[in-house]
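Q: How would the structure tokens look for this protein?
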Amino acid sequence: MATFPEYIAQNEERDGVRFSWNVWPSSRLEATRMVVPVAALFTPLRERSDLPPIQYEPVLCSRATCRAVLNPLCQVDYRAKLWACNFCYQRNQFPPSYAGISEVNQPAELLPHFSTIEYVVQRGPQMPLVFLYVVDTCMEDEDLQALKESLQMSLSLLPPTALVGLITFGRMVQVHELGCEGISKSYVFRGTKDLNAKQLQDMLGLTKPSAAQGRGPQTSQQPLSNRRWREMGWPCGICLG
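A: Here is the predicted structure in token form.
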């Protein structure tokens, strides 16, 4: 029988996911007392031969500010057909298509050995994949060169239509706008200054300007943030070219 560290290592190797903790907080109070927040490192596009893509919509938390996906860490009441979100602890009703679930008849997303699942979502616009590289440049020249080679290799493994973004940080944080041909353009932020999310969105042009600013209302049906992503990102195939 495998030890607990060996069990965790096997799960990480199988799923391509590593968490900052090997247990999940059981209550909101316990979550607030954690010194290190729960975080995870994912391996994008990792293939699993034992689990093909799921051909139905994921079940989402009903709380508008959460919308987390049903997963094996959620608490499930099979008799009442309810599940409690493990992110916000909201109690949710299962959709009618899950009427037949039980402890011996569970959907794939509740099975512990399927902690990562790829869904094929049929509705909504088909957006390209977005990969954001966040690179620490405070290193020796030899290490920096090795990092550049690793980044080039990882780009070759991405779909050609994927959008690629780049953020580098040292003494300054630079958000690079890769969509500018012929010139190098980036937004530079001082590393010692704290900025909230709203300030960053305004500086990067990710928020919709008001009519009072003299720009008029947005006429495009595409959200401004999506269009800015396309401007700031760059297709992977062009990056490699």
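Helices lie at 4-15, 28-32, 141-156, 197-204, 224-232, 236-240.

The radius of gyration is 22 Å.

Upvote if useful.
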